[in-house]
Amino acid sequence: MTKNHAEVLIIGGGVAGLSLSLRLAHTGVNVTLISKDTLSEGSSLYAQGGIAAVLDKDDSFTSHIEDTLTAGAELCNPQTVRFVVENAPKAIDWLINNGVEFSVIDGPEYDGDDSQYHLTREGGHSHRRVIHAQDATGREVATTLEKLVRDESRISILEHHIAIDLVTAQKLELTGSNRVVGAYILDTKAGKVSAIAARSVVIATGGASKSYLYTSNPDTSTGDGIAMAWRVGCRIANMEFVQFHPTCLYHPHAKSSLISEAVRGEGGRLLLPDGSRFMKQHHKLEELAPRDIVARAIDYEMKLHGLDSVFLDISHKPKKFVLGHFPNIYKNCMQYGFDISKEPVPVVPAAHYTCGGVMTDLNGCTDLANLYCIGEASCTGLHGANRLASNSLLECLVLAKASAEHISTNLTQKDKQHSIPDWDESRVTDPDERIVVSHNWDELRRFMWDYVGIVRTDKRLERAAHRIKLLQEEIRDYYSNFKVSSDLLELRNLVTVADLIVQCALKRRESRGLHYTLDCPDTKDVARDSVIVPSNYAAHSNSVSW
Ligand code: FAD
Ligand code: SIN
Fold it and tell me: Which ligand does the CA of 389 lie closest to?
């Protein structure tokens, strides 16, 4: 059994975890960075459209703030929104200084000055303010940061290591107030569990969109960090706000194939099979309405006309323009037989982003001392009831900087590292019923899609709640009897986040932003967060306030 110690343990190698690791290392802090797959495999790597920031002289912080508040359906925390928006230009400078290459202006607007970055538009933005690297912004940012992280001697990297659970002082019966002291980690290649003791632990594990059958997300988005934080007593907020991206390619083999909102930002139109446009009937901003409205409009039209999909068309633009702006989307669609420069492509909405998560303040602090959470796993109050496009990578970057400062300032005051008992290896039996785990995964993802999707009702939510209870019992049984595997751990976490989504959805007696229910179609005058408090919460003195 290997026992490890880390000054700071960061769980997750997306843009949140990578940028935090670098920032900490640059202030002289030693970091252990773990990722359950290869280092940067996660949503960040697949981000397409870009990063929202006020970079144009005709744009303003006020406008970015207003757009974020409007998209968030009045539920955002205005203080958080201002903080993130005002720190956005500095976050972009930091990326550029670290070697990230964003697309520059070309075509008729080009005036020979390479420093003029091309800014695209996306739904809900009243200005062009999305800086991007063609249509593969996430890959450019994540791979650039990953190279720097790999060269940094203060960062130890453990790939194919999945965090199982956080370890608290309470669990070890230590004196003093409750706090996080480390985590149990499974080396998925060696099949061995070890404990890592740490002075601070950061959850940067991304979202939970894999709880839905159809999603734009990679396999890593199983809500592990949200479930781990919940189990140790952190409050979780606003999980009912699952963002469905309006335009994922509809094809039986096109798993997780997003077609960026930037396609609509650059003039792409949504069409019914007869070629007619329909967004005018749903919102004055038409194709560029906030994402919740576009996804719901597509869902409505599909149900009204009994369609398998609607269509997205950018073929009225010159081929050179389409290939110049969207080379990867073009290639990907070609692979499935669709030439976006010549014809409309079939699209459907799919689960894309988890607006809720672990409640944190503007330093990434959670309810439990020594535990931080940043990125999609967190709920800072930025997104409210619906995230504005391209505000997510931005939040990862801004909160990584803030929490790096908080962690490095407070590290010396933290108590010594505690030794953590070995993992209980009495569960030695390999799960001979692996097929049951995979059936449970499928069952969960299907009923979440059917009952907790774009349009909800109390009856459907209660059906989902009932099935979740049954699955929880089965999983408890597996978990206490069998050797842990990543599939089993992820299933356990998915069921927990599904439960949190349904609990929040049942609590909200109105429709707001991404939560739309036929039983309460109106929006209340006063917006309130849905906060779920775990039974082991009361003990803390560290609770974050919003
Ligand atoms: P991720 O990038 O998902 O990284 C999570 C990391 O945690 C991964 O390394 C994963 O392996 C690891 N991990 C998870 N659980 C564990 C565990 N138990 N133990 C160890 N490691 C674990 N947002 C924008 O702002 N602009 C865009 O253009 C944009 N486009 C998008 C396109 C797509 C296709 C998708 C899926 C998302 C897009 N988003 C976009 C959203 C954005 O990419 C994500 O919200 C953001 O990248 C999340 O970053 P993160 O670091 O929090 O999580
Ligand atoms: C996209 O490119 O459409 C995704 C942007 C986002 O999720 O913010």
Answer: 2
Which pLDDT value is given to residue 114? Answer: 56
For residue 358 and ligand 1, the question of a CB distance below 6 A is answered with no
Q: Which residues contact 25 (CB under 8 A, 6 or more apart)?
A: 31, 149, 152, 154, 155
Residue 511 CA to ligand 2 center (angstroms) comes to 23
Residue 111: pLDDT band (50, 70, 90) is low
Which string of DSSP letters, residue by residue, matches 287-325? GGS-HHHHHHHHHHHHHHHT-S-EEEE-TTS-HHHHHHH
Q: Report how far residue 137's alpha carbon sits from residue 103's, in angstroms, rounded to the nearest whole number.
A: 9
Residue 180 in 3-state DSSP? strand
For atom 1 of ligand 2, which residue has the closest CA? 260
pLDDT over 70 percentage in the chain: 95
Structure tokens at 268: 């792409």
Nearest-CA residue for atom 46 of ligand 1:
44
The answer on pLDDT for 119 being more than 60 is yes
Predicted local confidence at residue 1, as pLDDT: 41
Which tokens go with 104? 């520059």
Give the closest residue (by CA) to ligand 1 atom 33: 47
- The catalytically annotated residue of 291, 296, 387, 456 is 291
Q: What is the pLDDT of residues 412-443, one digit of tens each?
A: 766 677 889 999 877 667 656 677 788 899 99
Top mutation candidate among 44, 46, 48 for ligand 2, by most atoms within 8 Å of CB? 48
The whole-angstrom separation of Cα 453 and Cα 300 is 13
The alpha carbon of 487 and the centre of ligand 1 are apart by a number of angstroms equal to 19
Looking at the CA of residue 352, tell me the nearest atom of ligand 2.
Answer: 7
- Domains, in order of start, for the chain: 3-240+355-413 (3.50.50.60), 245-351 (3.90.700.10), 434-522 (1.20.58.100)
Has 291 been annotated as catalytic?
Answer: yes
Residue type, 337: G
Cβ(20)–Cβ(403) below 8 Å: yes
Could you give the dihedral angle defined by the CA atoms of residues 25, 31, 35 and 40, in that order, rounded to the nearest 10 degrees?
0
